[in-house]
Each structure stands twice: as structure tokens, then as C-alpha cells.
Design a protein that fits this description.
The complex is a heterodimer of chains A (105) and B (455). By secondary structure, chain A is of the alpha+beta class. Helix content of chain A is 49%, strand content 15%. Chain A has a 4-stranded antiparallel β-sheet. The radius of gyration of chain A is 13 Å and the shape is globular. Chain B is mostly beta strands and 455 residues long. In chain B, strands 7, 10, 11, 13, 14, 15 and 17 form a 7-stranded antiparallel β-sheet that branches. In chain B, strands 22, 24, 25, 27, 30 and 32 form a 6-stranded antiparallel β-sheet that branches. The longest helix of chain B is centred in the C-terminal third of the chain and has 12 residues. Classes of the chains: A alpha+beta (105), B mainly beta (455). The interface between A and B is medium-sized, with 29 and 32 residues.
Chain lengths: 105, 455
């Protein structure tokens, strides 16, 4: 069910939005501490995140429409305020995954 | 084991047994092998440890041969971390150790705070993170660590250390002050200055050790760096401050922010349900690959979490008193059952005495150690082991820039960002080509490599 951890990084300036997203997609009741501002590489904050296989596929494919639908659905399931489509798109386009982190930072 | 708590002692015992581990923080979904753990049941007093953020949960593993359970994190921030005030974990009690702009006027706000100019000089690690202090008083210009307060008690021995240099003063002083609480002068009980320490205009790490007086009122300690007697306007550069228990300055640990690792005389909250309160002599016992480690006289803060300190742990016991020899023997016997076995060292030529046996990626060279220059993320590997099995990797890291970790066949596991003796990583391999990986920025060396299967 659980995959190995996936390294994710986003610009430090987006940490608040990223942790809001973390809280929405987290399988548990937490998630708002997914990205730690003390764990940075350059100007990026890095987290090593385990996913269920389904959610990992959504994250890795980075299809805009899939992200919008999956995150909105998850927020509704958890009774949380949804992120705006613009914020979701900003996070999606800023996210670096796995080896992308080392090669581009 | 529960007899250890028979007289109402605070603490807990969190076995690595899967029957006491749950996937969710509510403790409703049983944990599965290679799944995450968000709830560890305390079998002593029912003070369960929880972690609700999935990214911060360890994995539950089982060793392939002996089937012993253990927790695997591989991240420095992994929750459920066991933070020892020892060589195994957090030793530096300070925060903002490379950012003196966050520090306050020294000696419980009694002295004049030097002016701080951030990031003026290249630090000993090659980064532009050293700060300049400018003297603001002819005999009382002193800077001291900021919140959170650092807990202390009578007769404890502390050592402060810091890299210092100056082009226009010849001496400075360390000072360790102590008080009853907080950082206001009204809480100040006293202090001990070092003798003037001669400095030069090159980086040298200086240290000062002192024992606090036998004063039962002491609850906090305050680490200070002072100009001593100096001319207003003179300067010194500082970087890498460290305050630690004991009489020897150990390897420097960078601490950015957050609480110090040792005790806070406030009962832990529901978030940290171990509820160890107001104690100065906790005993922490933990299962490690080397066996059961029992650390006496450890102190614990509110944010004491239970998680792998270096990507690996199993049973954890904390109790707020010293154990008798018989109790230690009992604890060792009980916890020894959970010590995973390690195989032999599979790394050939781990001391890099010859330029053989290792496959060098871009930037790597071997000449007594394995060295990498910055530029490209690359690997240093051997072909060994079985893909999909779990291995423990250790090595001595000398780091100038970037991060280095183990390489499991796919990715860098761990991110050591400082010089460290016997840095430890635990990894599940994805191929038989394994070893080390430095990120694009990594410049430094790896030596004394050991790769052992977790049996």
C-alpha cells in the first residue's frame, strides 16, 4: 500500500501553500508540517514523503486537471477549505520530484 | 518492565513490536510491514507517542533473516525521533548557531549587546554565513544565546565552543551564566568568565568548560561570547557556536532553530504524551544496531519525539530516574531481544587505500580517501549484496559544501550536511550497485566505509 519515500521540493517562498496542500492530501489528520523550513537545499525546501500508490501516481504524473480534481476531492472528503486552482497550479508547476531536485537546484 | 514504574515514575516504554504499532495517529489501523507508523503504544503507563503527519512517520520494517521489527526513517526530520543528548543525536544545546542576529544581550540581558552584521565572512565550512560582532561597550559588550532557554541544574559541567577570528582585537572571552528562569536580569544568579583567549585573524575553534556551582536554584544556563575589555567599534567574526554537556567540545552540530534537546521543567503536553516532567536524570534506553544503549542522566524537553535518530531504531525506554545495576541488566535483557543482527562488512577497500574496487562517478577521486568535487550529483559505488534487502551504511564524512548520503541504487539516502564521524544511513536497495551519492553541491570526502546487511 505504501510506497518508498518520494523526495519533493518546492521553493521556500511557497512553504505555507505547500503545507496546506500537505494537510489536504495527508492520509492522517496532520500534514501541515510536511515541509520543514529548516530542511532546505538552496532556496528550496525538501520533504521525503511516503504516499499510497494511488496518490503517488497523481503527484508524479503532474497532470494539471488530475491535480485539480484530486486535491479538490480530497479537501471535500476531509472537510477542509480547498486550495484555489491558481495555488494548486502554482504548486504543481513549481514542484520538483526525486532526481529533479539535485539536477536543478 | 512495568515494575520500573511501580513508584509512579514518569516515562514510558515503546516496544518496536508491531502489535503496539499503528498506521494512523488515532491508533485504529494496525501497522503493516513496510507501512508507516503514526502511533506507538506505551506499554508502561499508556502515554502513547503519536505522529499525525504522514511525511514524518517512520516505516515499520522486519529484518529478513531474524524477522525482528525496527523503525526506518532515513530522514533527519523524521518524527518519532529519539533525540539523545549524546553522540548519537542532538548535542548542541544552542539554536541559531550560525545566526547571531537572533542572539540577545549576554548574561541575562545585563551586558551591552554587540552590533551584529550577518553573513560578512566566509565561514570555516566555506559558506558565507559568518557574522561580525562589533563592540558596543569598553568592558561589557557580550552576546548570549536566545530562547528557548537551556535547562540546567547545580554542578552540571558545560562546554561552550565557537569559531572566532579578528583583525583588530587580540583576545575575547567566553562566559557561561546561570539563573532561575528566562533571560531577564532578575533571574540571573551568576556567571563564570573564561580568561582572555588569544585570537588571530584566522578561523580557530575555541572552547571553555566550567562547572556550575552547587546552587539548587539554578534551572537555566546562558552561553555568552564577550569582547571583555575592548575598544568600542572593534570587531570579531564568529561562526558555529555550540554549548554542550560535558567537558569536551565534540563535533560541531549546526542548529538552525527550535528547542534544545535537553530538559524543560514543564510537563509534556498531550502532543508529546510521554509526560516526563521536571526531571534532570532521565535514563534513556534504546535499541540500536550495536545493541542496547543506556544513557544515564539525560534530560528531555517538551518536544522529545520518538523516531530514528539516524534512520534506525527499535525499542525505546525513558524513565525519569537513574536505574540500579539490576534494573539495567533487566532492561538490557528485555531489549536485547529486539537488537537486529548485522552481517559482515561487504564494502571492499572501504578505507580507500588504493584507487581500486569502487566505481567513481563524475567528480569522484580516490587517494587515501574518496573525494568529490562540486559540480554534478554523482555516485561512488560497488556491486554487492542483494537488491531489495536492507543495509546499514556508515562512513566518516568530511564536508565542505553540499550533502552526501548512501546510494541505494536509485537515490541518495540521507543528506549529511556537516563533517561527521561514522555518519549512519539505513537503506533498502533497488539494485546491487550501491554505495554513496553526493549531490551536485557536495564537495568533501568519504572514508572508512562500512556496508552491512540488516539481517
Amino acid at each position: 500500500m505504501w510506497t518508498e519515500r518520494l523526495a519533493l521540493s518546492i521553493p521556500l517562498t511557497l512553504i505555507a501553500e505547500a503545507n496546506t496542500l500537505g494537510a489536504i492530501i495527508d492520509q492522517d489528520s496532520g500534514g501541515s508540517l510536511t515541509f520543514d523550513p529548516n530542511q532546505t537545499v538552496g532556496d528550496y525546501v525538501v520533504a521525503y514523503v511516503p504516499f499510497t500508490e494511488t496518490m503517488r501516481g497523481v503527484v508524479e504524473r503532474r497532470i494539471a486537471a488530475e491535480w485539480q480534481a484530486a486535491i479538490a476531492q480530497r479537501a471535500e472528503q476531509k472537510g477542509m477549505e480547498p486550495l484555489s486552482p491558481e495555488t494548486i497550479e502554482l504548486l504543481r508547476s513549481s514542484l520538483k520530484i526525486g532526481d529533479e531536485i539535485e539536477s536543478e537546484i | 518492565m512495568q515494575l520500573l514504574f511501580a513508584n509512579g515514575e514518569n516515562g514510558g516504554y515503546w516496544p518496536a513490536d508491531p502489535q503496539y504499532s499503528f498506521e494512523d495517529s488515532a491508533g485504529t489501523l494496525a501497522a503493516s510491514v513496510n507501512g508507516v507508523v503514526g502511533y506507538r503504544m506505551d506499554v508502561a503507563l499508556g502515554k502513547h507517542a503519536v505522529q499525525a503527519t504522514t511525511a514524518n512517520k517512520p516505516y515499520l520494517r522486519r529484518t529478513p533473516t531474524t524477522d525482528k521489527p525496527w523503525y526506518d526513517s532515513n530522514t533527519a526530520t523524521g518524527a518519532m525521533n529519539v533525540t539523545f543528548a549524546s553522540a548519537m543525536g542532538r548535542r548542541n544545546l544552542l539554536t541559531y548557531t550560525e545566526n547571531f542576529s537572533a542572539w540577545i544581550a549576554g548574561i541575562y540581558d545585563q551586558h551591552a549587546r554587540p552590533t551584529v552584521t550577518s553573513n560578512t565572512d566566509i565561514a570555516p565550512d566555506g559558506s558565507l554565513t559568518a557574522d561580525t560582532l562589533t563592540c558596543t561597550h569598553v568592558e561589557a559588550s557580550t552576546i548570549g544565546n536566545t530562547t528557548p532557554t537551556i535547562a540546567a541544574s547545580a554542578n552540571q559541567v558545560f562546554t561552550i565552543s565557537c569559531w572566532v577570528k579578528s583583525s583588530n582585537i587580540s583576545t575575547f572571552r567566553f562566559c557561561i551564566a546561570y539563573g532561575t528562569s528566562g533571560y531577564s536580569f532578575g533571574n540571573h544568579l551568576g556567571y563564570t568568565f573564561s580568561l582572555p583567549i588569544t585570537i588571530i585573524n584566522s578561523w580557530v575553534r575555541y572552547s571553555f568548560t566550567t562547572q556550575l556551582p552547587n546552587n539548587a536554584s539554578i534551572t537555566t544556563v546562558h552561553a555568552c561570547i564577550s569582547f571583555g575589555s575592548a575598544t568600542v567599534g572593534t570587531t570579531m567574526q564568529v561562526w558555529g557556536a555550540q554549548l554542550e554537556l560535558g567537558s569536551t567540545p565534540t563535533d560541531y552540530q549546526k542548529i538552525v532553530a527550535g528547542p534544545s534537546a535537553v530538559l524543560d521543567p514543564v510537563a509534556l503536553t498531550a502532543t508529546y504524551p510521554q509526560n516526563i516532567s521536571a526531571t534532570t536524570n532521565c535514563t534513556i534506553a534504546c535499541v540500536t544496531p550495536e545493541g542496547v544503549v543506556i544513557a544515564d542522566n539525560q534530560t528531555v524537553r517538551t518536544t522529545f519525539n520518538i523516531a530514528p535518530a539516524f534512520g534506525y531504531n527499535s525499542d525505546v525506554l525513558i524513565i525519569n530516574r537513574a536505574l540500579t545495576p539490576a534494573e539495567k541488566a533487566l532492561v538490557t535483557r528485555v531489549m536485547q531481544r529486539s537488537v537486529p543482527s548485522l552481517g559482515s562488512n561487504l564494502a571492499v577497500n572501504g578505507s580507500f587505500t588504493t584507487d581500486t574496487d569502487w566505481t567513481k562517478g563524475s567528480g569522484w577521486s580516490i587517494d587515501g580517501t574518496a573525494a568529490k568535487s562540486a559540480g554534478t550529483a554523482s555516485n561512488l559505488t560497488q556491486t554487492l549484496g542483494v537488491s531489495g534487502n536492507q543495509y546499514r551504511v556508515t562512513a566518516d564524512i568530511a564536508r565542505t559544501a553540499g550533502t552526501v548520503g548512501a546510494y541505494n541504487g536509485t537515490a541518495q539516502i540521507g543528506a549529511t550536511a556537516a563533517t561527521e564521524t561514522a555518519a549512519k544511513y539505513a537503506m533498502k536497495t533497488t539494485s546491487t550497485t550501491v554505495g554513496f551519492r553526493g549531490d551536485a553541491s557536495f564537495a568533501g570526502t568519504v572514508d572508512n566505509a562500512v556496508i552491512q546487511e540488516i539481517l
